[in-house]
Backbone:
């Protein structure tokens, strides 16, 4: 853990770099979910964190750096939970795929608050979501079950094409929410076509 003597707020010191970053990221989440990513300024984040803009720039290169950091943290958290959720479907790839799409479509939805990626934030967040890092996380979840499925049923489904489709479906269902029964009926009808 890196130590720092940087001032925080009204003269209090932050003992380590990670604590300072966490406090700023919490302020950024508050701003991004209440004002929107586009409308939020570094000044807004500094005000919520009770620091100066200069302090924010000591920890982050700018707003894009803050957004990228938040998206990376959330992506890691989401895929860790996703892997746990779909573990029971490792031998039923079609069901695993349905559960993956449903989980990612309903993960921290706007109705639950604290949404950084949909609604007014979608346009600003998209470049940070559709990344090689996201694709790598999907590969970790889907590679082994898809390989087994392809071998078992003589299929040749391409993992990269599947990842692209799964991500888009999850985002579409995220933008236009439905209940799980209707979601499953739609996905299963599509699968049967």
Residues:
């Amino acid at each position: 853990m890196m130590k720092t003597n940087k001032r925080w707020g009204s003269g209090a010191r932050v003992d380590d770099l990670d604590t300072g970053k966490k406090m700023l990221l919490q302020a950024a989440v508050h701003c991004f979910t209440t004002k929107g990513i586009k409308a939020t300024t570094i000044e807004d984040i500094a005000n919520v964190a009770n620091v100066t803009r200069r302090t924010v720039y000591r920890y982050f290169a700018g707003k894009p750096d803050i957004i990228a950091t938040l998206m990376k943290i959330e992506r890691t958290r989401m895929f860790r939970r996703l892997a746990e959720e779909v573990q029971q479907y490792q031998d039923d790839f079609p069901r695993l795929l349905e559960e993956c799409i449903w989980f990612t479509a309903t993960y921290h939805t706007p109705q639950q608050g604290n949404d950084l990626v949909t609604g007014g934030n979608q346009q600003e967040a998209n470049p940070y979501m559709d990344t090689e890092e996201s694709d790598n996380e999907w590969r970790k979840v889907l590679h082994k079950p898809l390989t087994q499925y392809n071998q078992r049923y003589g299929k040749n489904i391409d993992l990269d094409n599947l990842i692209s489709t799964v991500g888009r479906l999850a985002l579409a269902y995220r933008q236009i929410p439905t209940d799980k029964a209707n979601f499953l009926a739609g996905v299963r009808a599509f699968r049967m076509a």
About this structure: The first strand starts at residue 7 and ends at 8.
